[in-house]
Structure of tRNA-guanosine(34) queuine transglycosylase:
Amino acid sequence: VLRVVAECGRSRARAGELRLPHGDVPCPVFMPVGTRGTAKGLTAAQLAALGCRICLGNTFHLGTRPGSELVRRSGGLHGFMDWPHNLLTDSGGFQMVSLLELSEVSEEGVRFRPPHGGEEILLSPEKSMEIQNALGADIVMQLDDVVSSTTTGPRVEEAMHRSVRWLDRCLAAHARPQQQLLFAIVQGGLDPDLRLRCTMTQRDVPGFAIGGLSGGEDKAQFWRTVKFSAERLPRDKPRYLMGVGYATDLVVCVALGCDMFDCVFPTRTARFGSALVPWGSLQLKNAQFAKDFRPIDADCGCSTCQR
């Protein structure tokens, strides 16, 4: 899956390409998040024009509305989005944190009460794989037991061990292993001992993700945990750091050896009136810009700055 073409002599940074069913993807790579099949504020054609060759879809949300069967009948998520490039679907596990008030975790899986009403949903490892197989993304993620990165105590260890067991169930349930690459998600919170004891690297999977971070922990703790985790993942397989998208974090975590990243930050910050520029960010709703007709960045070639 991963071809490494260059490695930094002073850090663990590396350049390479992911060899995926819908084309090779240069890495390190940032993957925009299209929760319901589209990145908010952008069409698929605009994403492609920006050079994006892989983006995300959300298994839980697509599986509830419009439903995986409808997406499958429309040609899978590629056809549904009219997207000719690669896709990655998460497992739905993150909703254990984002919809904490509406979910309940057991060995069987995660039970959700839909935020918009309706029947209770059981998302088990088998159900997650069934939905992801129907969606047809190039990379699919195991269902993991996700706890907030600031959680401590026995719940973190329980989540780590359960995530390993759920990986084995995902591997057994995966119906299209040749067409869809199943990545494992290493858990263990901020505890290096739990990360070390997580036995997922003993499984023969195409790639590994570092999960359970970027949830409000101290920045030094975050970087320490990323460094520790990345050092213990196989050199010849992709390392995907989930939920990370701030510019500084991307640079640091590439230097720590990570290859893949995703985050809602770019689209969310744009919707709230901020623009990312080489020297930081601009809050375009501030009064000082009310009568400023200059481009956001005179040296930028994007359609917004060219107007």
The chain is about 30% helix and 20% strand. The chain has two domains: 2-272, 274-307. The chain has a mean pLDDT of 93. The longest helix spans residues 154-173.
